[in-house]
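[retry 2/3] Transcriptional regulator: previous attempt timed out, resubmitting with same input.
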Amino acid sequence: MAEDSAQHEGIDARPSLRTSDPAVLRALAHPLRVEILAAIDDLGEATATQIAERIGDTPSNCSFHLRTLAKAGFIERAEAQGTSKPWKAVHKERDLRPDPNDPESVRSSGTIGALYVQHEADRMVRFLTTQAPEAVAAWSVTVTTSSFWATPEELAALAEEVHHLADRFAGRSADPSLRPAGSRKAYLFATVNPDLEIPATPAAE
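[retry 2/3] Transcriptional regulator: success.
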């Protein structure tokens, strides 16, 4: 099968998701569902019990939210492992940018974005405040901020560049044999956003 061949070669054969549908977005616009989906992304496959242990919740509550995510098409059942029934993500990546002409789509997408920002910020805070200093230094952990003036088109181009920064590591999640010795799973957390409180530069007359 083509899917098996792609996975063997270290290519994630799952489709990408691009949607601005408010109904689909609302299914993810919940803090626990963001945590659950992030846990599945990290673990590859996981049962409700495994997810509950990871995020500090109950298996029954996680099961409820897992069914909601499945109904919206974000996750599906993985192959059963004995009596265990794990879940896996349907897509290799998700693009949930809103339809600018649909206020409900904009609101739902904004809620999801805010939840992911909080999720990643919390993870980074835990890392910086709990890891030994030598570990932080050894892995070149950085927190970088910058401000600049740009047009909407330039910001869109920059966002696209940032999106592809980690392409050089593609395939390593699907195929462990591609991971160099000593490598660890790493995260890139970036935002590109305008400051809407400062007036835009007026157009030249």
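[retry 2/3] Transcriptional regulator: The chain has a mean pLDDT of 90.
[retry 2/3] clearing retry counter.
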